[in-house]
Write a structure and sequence with these properties.
Radius of gyration: 24 Å
Largest sheet: none
Shape: rod-shaped
Structural class: mainly alpha
Distance between the termini: 61 Å
């Protein structure tokens, strides 16, 4: 969070300057990119975990079928 974010709130009675608004928008964009990256990392982790579980279960079934 930048100093502009700390100083200015959107419910403030004064209008932000163009520079303040630009910086606020950049902060929001940065936060959105970080959130998106975290979500994608978590998705990949869950997909990998699910693939591992499926592979383990298939191996168990194959082992049981061969007995």
């Amino acid at each position: 969070m930048t100093e502009v974010n700390k100083k200015y709130r959107l419910n403030s009675m004064e209008e932000p300057t163009d520079e303040m608004l630009q910086e606020l928008m950049e902060d929001v964009a940065k936060a959105a990119r970080e959130s998106s990256a975290k979500a994608e990392t978590e998705l990949k982790r869950r997909l990998s975990e699910t693939a591992h579980i499926i592979a383990s279960r298939r191996l168990k079934r194959k082992t049981i079928a061969n007995d």
